[in-house]
């Protein structure tokens, strides 16, 4: 199997660290970024570490860039073996849900759900041909007094559903594709204003945690895996 992965939002934060970990494991890393200079800077940084890194422009808010990224992959990287849907925005994490405008919700959903789904769907033929894997980087969506960012949680609930539902579709149709999610837990990045604290990990720690699961040799189809390695159960015994 070719070792080639496309990671969205890989110019910084957790995505860049997953790229680093996979690159050090001999993978070619396609660095998805919406801004060319930020994308190329990350590629240069990874190359300086001896990693085979390539910049691919993609802005999940702009469908035409999703299609052009897919064209580049189909023509130049048709041996792609893994897609990591990492790019995301949180929206306003403090504002109560009832104060969100539809436009604000749409922006978060467009990036974290619709753009991400569009990319995933368009890459399915390539991934299916290569017995590929899809990893969605996600968060827990259960109720919590400490963590209740409305738009972010709403979008990741949809992403978690996409993960489980497509996994069922793939296995029922005997498609040779695996889809799963990892929730790395609180990590100090731009997404949360670089929040620190005892319960927070660094981006390199999150990248290593994710890579360890990617490389554990297991089939994780349908699983939404927490940072402690446990598979989340969102069914609450209802089904
Ligand atoms: N940080 C945490 O505590 C935490 C915890 C659990 C899960 N996660 C998940 O981990 C993933 C990475 O987050 P992070 O913490 O590393 O955040 P980050 O440092 O803010 O990185 C987010 C990445 O997504 C990119 N991005 C944003 N909007 C985009 C768009 N429209 N098109 C393409 N790329 C776009 C950003 O690009 P720009 O540089 O151009 O903005 C950046 O590369 C996310 O899915 C997040 O939900 C994070």
UniProtKB/TrEMBL annotation:
Gene Ontology molecular function: oxidoreductase activity
Database matches in InterPro entries: NAD(P)-bd_dom_sf, SDR_fam
SUPFAM superfamilies (alphabetical): NAD(P)-binding Rossmann-fold domains
Gene3D superfamilies, sorted: NAD(P)-binding Rossmann-like Domain
UniProt keyword Membrane present: no
Record's keyword annotation contains Flavoprotein: no
Keywords: Oxidoreductase
Cellular component, GO, one term: cytosol
Family indicated by similarity: Belongs to the short-chain dehydrogenases/reductases (SDR) family.
Protein name: Carbonyl reductase
Annotated organism of origin: Listeria booriae
């Amino acid at each position: 199997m070719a070792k080639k992965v496309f990671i969205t939002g890989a110019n910084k934060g957790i995505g860049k660290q997953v790229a680093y970990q996979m690159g050090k494991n001999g993978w070619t890393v396609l660095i998805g970024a919406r801004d060319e200079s930020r994308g190329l800077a990350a590629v240069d940084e990874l190359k300086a570490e001896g990693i085979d890194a390539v910049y691919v422009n993609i802005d999940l808010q702009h469908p035409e860039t999703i299609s052009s990224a897919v064209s580049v992959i189909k023509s130049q990287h048709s041996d792609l073996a893994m897609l990591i849907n990492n790019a995301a925005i949180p929206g306003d994490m403090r504002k109560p849900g009832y104060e969100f405008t539809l436009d604000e919700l749409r922006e978060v959903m467009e990036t974290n759900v619709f753009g991400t789904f569009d990319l995933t769907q368009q890459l399915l033929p390539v991934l299916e041909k290569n017995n590929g894997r899809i990893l969605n980087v996600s968060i827990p969506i259960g109720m919590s007094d400490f963590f209740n960012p409305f738009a972010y949680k709403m979008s990741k609930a949809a992403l978690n559903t996409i993960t489980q539902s497509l996994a069922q579709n793939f296995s029922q149709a005997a498609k040779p594709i695996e889809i799963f999610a990892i929730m790395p837990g609180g990590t100090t990045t731009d997404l949360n204003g670089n929040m620190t604290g005892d319960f927070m990990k660094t981006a390199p720690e999150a990248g290593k945690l994710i890579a360890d699961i990617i490389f554990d040799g297991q089939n994780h189809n349908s699983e939404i895996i927490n940072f402690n390695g446990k598979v989340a159960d969102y069914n609450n015994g209802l089904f």
